[in-house]
Design brief:
- The chain is of the alpha+beta class.
- It is built from 4 helices and 7 strands; from the N terminus they run βααβββββαβα.
- The strands form 2 sheets. It has a 4-stranded antiparallel β-sheet, with no helix packed on it. A 3-stranded antiparallel β-sheet has the order 5-6-7, with helices on both faces.
- The longest helix is centred in the first third of the chain and has 24 residues.
């Protein structure tokens, strides 16, 4: 089996960018048409915060880079601080939903240093997801807005896990 590279879903980012730009333009027009006493407040509280998602979306489209590298040996998650999962340490990949996020849970074998019980992993999931450098590491892979659906990704990962050739 060859290496697989999974990218963020560009189509969704473009659609989201268009929606955010249209909404931002609407808010700017409303801010311009507001009475003179309300205009400064509408600029500060409505129009300016709309620029944040626009800038973020433009940045993500400009810096379009792979999110996952799947090889015969394991997975490399390309977050701010990349991290790796070796198939030899993993027992199973499972679908997980946490606060509306679609995740792929990583269940390690008991003889590995990363092994934790399901209860321990669930307790710390909130903190792992809030980590900006590598969200979910090393127990969850964020599987939202990717070029491959979570189900397809799970199938590929579990197939690699069971047949690493």
């Amino acid at each position: 089996m060859g290496d697989i590279t999974v990218y963020p879903a560009k189509k969704r980012m473009v659609v989201a960018l268009i929606v955010v730009i249209v909404l931002t333009a609407l808010f700017f027009i409303l801010a311009l048409c507001a009475p003179s006493r309300i205009a400064p407040l509408s600029w500060v509280f409505i129009a300016m915060p709309c620029l944040i998602p626009v800038c973020r979306a433009v940045y993500l489209l400009y810096k379009y880079r792979p999110y996952l590298f799947i090889t015969n040996e394991g997975i490399r998650v390309n977050s701010k601080e990349p991290w790796e999962v070796r198939f030899s340490d993993v027992e199973q990949f499972i679908p997980i939903s946490h606060r509306g996020y679609q995740l792929i849970g990583i269940r390690y074998k008991k003889n590995t240093p990363y092994w934790k019980s399901d209860e321990e992993m669930e307790e710390n999931r909130k903190e792992r997801m809030l980590c900006q450098e590598h969200p979910g590491a090393p127990y969850d892979i964020v599987a939202e807005n990717l070029s491959m659906s979570r189900e397809e990704l799970l199938e590929v990962l579990n197939k690699r896990l069971n047949h690493p050739s």
